[in-house]
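User: Study the fold:
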Amino acid sequence: MNSSLIAALVFLLIFLLLVVITQLIHIWGGVPADKSRKFLHVAGGALTLFFPAYLHSHWYVLGLCMAAFMFLCFTYYRKLLSSVHEITRSSVGSIIFPLPVYICFLVAEKTGDNMLLFYLPVSLLTISDTMAELGGRKWGHRSIMFFNKQKTVAGSSCFAISALVLSIIFIVFVFKIDVQTSWLLIAAVTIVSTVAELFSLRGYDNLTVPLSTLLVLYLLT
């Protein structure tokens, strides 16, 4: 059997296991859905970062992302999977999460396997978006709020700091882009992704953050 196909099946099983764990910590552990869904967000995002090492064609990633997307859509509209969908605010973030993962992988593959175009956008989606939410919850009430308290200076600041750190790690240390280009990239990615996160409501930052980062990297590399 094709090694990529085997890897894709393994990834699918791991994703389903993460869903089960998320539901268990919500129901049996008493963890609120706002927090349990973030576990799946981070764990699922971390899982996708292994895609380039084991999946050698975007078609396998398309299959995985479509399966995840349809599963999340089905459970959302049938009011299942309370650990992910039953949150206090209106959000489609959990549903659209697989879409930018596939788009970033496809563009990275079609531009000569430039996997910076995959790793950095998906890392910002996974980590920086989470830092924004955590920072907003912890310090948001002490800072300026926007859009009916959906966004805060504290949350956006946490996003910007983590985006800056991740950009430096990937651009300078992992992909070793030359110094003159790297600092332009780092500044552009940090600013554009932070603005995208600030102005995206109802979970659409799961789409705008990685795609705006992808666009910056595509244009400047």
Notes: The two ends are 37 Å apart (CA to CA). Residues 3-220 form one domain. The chain has one domain: 3-220.
